Amino acid sequence: MKVLDWGGIYQNNLEKSIVDNYIKKIQDFDILNKKIEGAIHDSVRGYVQSSWFNHWTSILIEDVFKDNDKVIPTIGLIKKVDFFISNVPFDLKVTYFPEGYMLARRKALGIPTEIQLLKRFAKTKKIKFDHLQKEKVIASELLTRISEREDAESKKFIDEFKEIRWKIVQDTAKDKKALIKWLYEEQGERRFDAANRLFLVLIDKENMDESWKMKRNVDLLRDDVNLYLNKFDPKDISKLDIEFDWIDGNKYNTVSDAIFVIKK
Q: For position 12, what pLDDT does the model report?
């Protein structure tokens, strides 16, 4: 896998994305067929390949956990439980540093979003880009193009840009509960659950857009996973209590923790 491209599928819902973007919008049958051969075909390919990658790398990562003596695998399928750590059940969730949480932290700090900073700097340097692209694509392109510039002003901008980003990541790793609460509260309605979750947060410091590649790097993950497991003490379980709100207006309680694996 060279790229992880979900094909524009919204919230992992292939059927809803096709219905909303094609079936309910396109009236002409010939245009629909062209979309099926082009955009829909490409979207489904990206969705299936990305889902395949996520499925099999998740199995590899679960095996890393299950190799540790403190971990007891489930026998058969138990809903919302992948394994027990010292008899505490957990549903393993592998994720990356969420873009939404980065936005929330920057807003709380009263600083512009990353895309705002990149666009402003690009304007001062007269760097052209496709304004019609999605913001994630624009941000990735501008970050790459500005990073490749040799002038002192561009180098200073990139250093400061990465320094702020890295500071937010470090602060989040120190205060894991804030991120965990956010992850529970921002979960999609189709996948809502208050089960015990253990989040494995993968972060490539130099290129956060490439963090997904860490999922297949078992050697990199094994040391940090075992370090966490070897220190795990069920007597400290109260420290993992999380209370979160959800869109139904109710409060929920769960047990959760996060392991940060950072590639420097």
A: 66
